[in-house]
Amino acid sequence: MHPHALALAAAFSVPQIAYLWLTGESSTALDLWTSIGRGVCMSYTQVAWWAWMVLIVFSLERWTYITVWLNSASFMKLCKKLRFALPAHEVLAHSLVCNKLIQLSSCLFVHFAIQNFSFPSDKPYTVFTAVQLLLIGQFLNWAVYGTIGKKGVYYGCRLGADVPWVEGCPFTCCPHPQYVGAMLSLLGLGMLTITPFHSANGMWLMMSSQWVFYVLTMYVEEKL
């Protein structure tokens, strides 16, 4: 295993061990991970309509990435035909920023219109773990941006842009570090925002389904 991968694993496991040893909250940790596991393993028939809505909105981004990857030449032709003033990778970037705004709107709707948001301030282990996951996830995310830039992130290599080939960190930390970072960040955000009500209506199941889409994107980029 590469030293960077070991460092990444240690960044999560060492603080976890230290926290649990100092606080003795091992049962709390078990309860948290068990509740998430139950939420992930529930039946799709129990999922509320608004949880399906969140999954659909979030999955649009993944399907856009996959479609452009598999049809990059057609996407570039479409951009030229529509006379966009921006390069194809910039067009993709702008469209996905719009999708992010829709994602944010769906989350605000679920956490305020459907059920009031409740920060788990009475669950220090949950907050501690969520912050860990968010920090590690965003480190991986921004490290990818820092090394290959917007052109690399938004498929410039498939859309006619010059993108540097990078073999060092963060690509030595784990395969597909940006997607792993996004999955860790989603898990951290879920810990902070998914209440028992949201969990009972399928939000953890929808989030795990989104992880499947990330894995599918990894497969497409690596194999197709």
UniProtKB/TrEMBL annotation:
Record-listed E.C. numbers: 2.1.1.71
Protein name from the UniProt record: phosphatidyl-N-methylethanolamine N-methyltransferase
This protein's pathway: Lipid metabolism; Phospholipid metabolism; phosphatidylcholine biosynthesis
Compartments (UniProt record): Endoplasmic reticulum membrane
Pfam families according to UniProt: PEMT
Keywords of this entry: Endoplasmic reticulum, Lipid biosynthesis, Lipid metabolism, Membrane, Methyltransferase, Phospholipid biosynthesis, Phospholipid metabolism, S-adenosyl-L-methionine, Transferase, Transmembrane, Transmembrane helix
GO biological process assignments: methylation; phosphatidylcholine biosynthetic process
Entry's Gene Ontology cellular component terms: endoplasmic reticulum membrane
Segments crossing the lipid bilayer: 49-70, 91-114, 126-145, 179-197
Bilayer topology: Multi-pass membrane protein
Any one GO molecular-function label of the UniProt entry: phosphatidyl-N-methylethanolamine N-methyltransferase activity
PANTHER family per record: PHOSPHATIDYLETHANOLAMINE N-METHYLTRANSFERASE (PTHR15458)
Biological source species: Eutreptiella gymnastica
